[in-house]
Each structure stands twice: as C-alpha cells, then as structure tokens.
Write a structure and sequence with these properties.
alpha/beta; 3-stranded parallel beta sheet; single chain; 3-stranded antiparallel beta sheet; D-Maltodextrin-Binding Protein, domain 2; 5 helices
Length: about 160
C-alpha cells in the first residue's frame, strides 16, 4: 500500500512539473523572433555547433534522472529547448561518477554540467549561469514521529 501511494505521488509530482515546464517554456518557444545574441555570442555558436553535457547514472527528480542512455527531467528539458533555440546540437557523455563529471568539465572534456551548486572551489575551472530554479532540501515526517527532533545532528535545522 505504501509503495502504491509513493508511485501515485511521484506521478502527480511529475505531472505538475511537466505542466509548469510547459507554462515556462512554451511562451519562449512561441516567439518567432531571433534570440538577442551579441556578435561574439553568434560567432562562438558558429564555431561550436555541438556542445557536450556530462552525465552519470543518478536520480534527482524532478530535475534530473539518468539511467544509462535515458536522460530525463526538468533540467534536461530546459537544456534541449535552449540548444534547439540556439540551433546547436547537444550530445551526451556518460561518466562513472559525479566526481568524474566534474573532473571532465574542468579538463574541458564537456561543455555543460547540469544541476550543480556554485562553490568557490568550482569557480576555479567552471563558469556558472544564474540559477533557473531552487531545490530547498527539507526533512518531513508525521507529527507523531519525533525521531528527527531528537537527533542531535539535526538540531537547529
């Protein structure tokens, strides 16, 4: 019964996120105007008609889920839409771990890393866009379940 409820909740969450993505993306897609790019940006795109995104098998829904060759999620959908609007091709490159993706990005093997938090250490080799979403992490439990409130490691959260 619990598993069935979780599956239903995940399906509902996916439907809500898909609707939100459509509301956000469709108005941009409906515009027939060229994107407002500088001459330098247009020259870069012409010189780089293909960009590579680094991936590893993970699940961070609704933003990203990678299972072998199957990639899905809000971030990937935004990335596909952006590359379509820019007229460039997106290819994926799979790595064994998150650390391998970061190392590849810093080495210039990939052009894009999705869903990455800005840290001082990462700015030494990566350039960040403005955030397009936030995902605050929270601990949720039933009112009668006080285990989280008694855990010393969670005090103050």
């Amino acid at each position: 019964m619990r598993q069935s409820c979780r599956v239903q909740m995940r399906s509902l969450l996916r439907a809500v996120v898909l609707c939100l993505a459509m509301v956000l993306v469709l108005p941009v897609s409906a515009q027939n105007e060229a994107l407002p790019l500088s001459p330098q940006q247009r020259a870069w795109l012409k010189a780089h008609p293909t960009v590579t995104v680094g991936l590893y098998d993970n699940v961070w829904l609704p933003f990203e889920r990678v299972r072998g060759e199957q990639v899905e999620g809000l971030s990937y959908d935004y990335l596909i839409e952006a590359t379509n609007q820019l007229g460039i091709t997106l290819i994926t490159r799979h790595y064994a771990s998150w650390g391998d993706v970061l190392q590849a990005a810093c080495a210039g093997e990939v052009d894009i890393v999705m869903d990455i938090a800005l840290t001082a250490e990462r700015t030494r080799c990566l350039v960040f866009t403005r955030p397009y979403g936030e995902a605050p992490v929270a601990l949720v439990s039933r009112l009668q379940d006080g285990r989280a409130a008694r855990d010393a490691e969670l005090t103050g959260l």
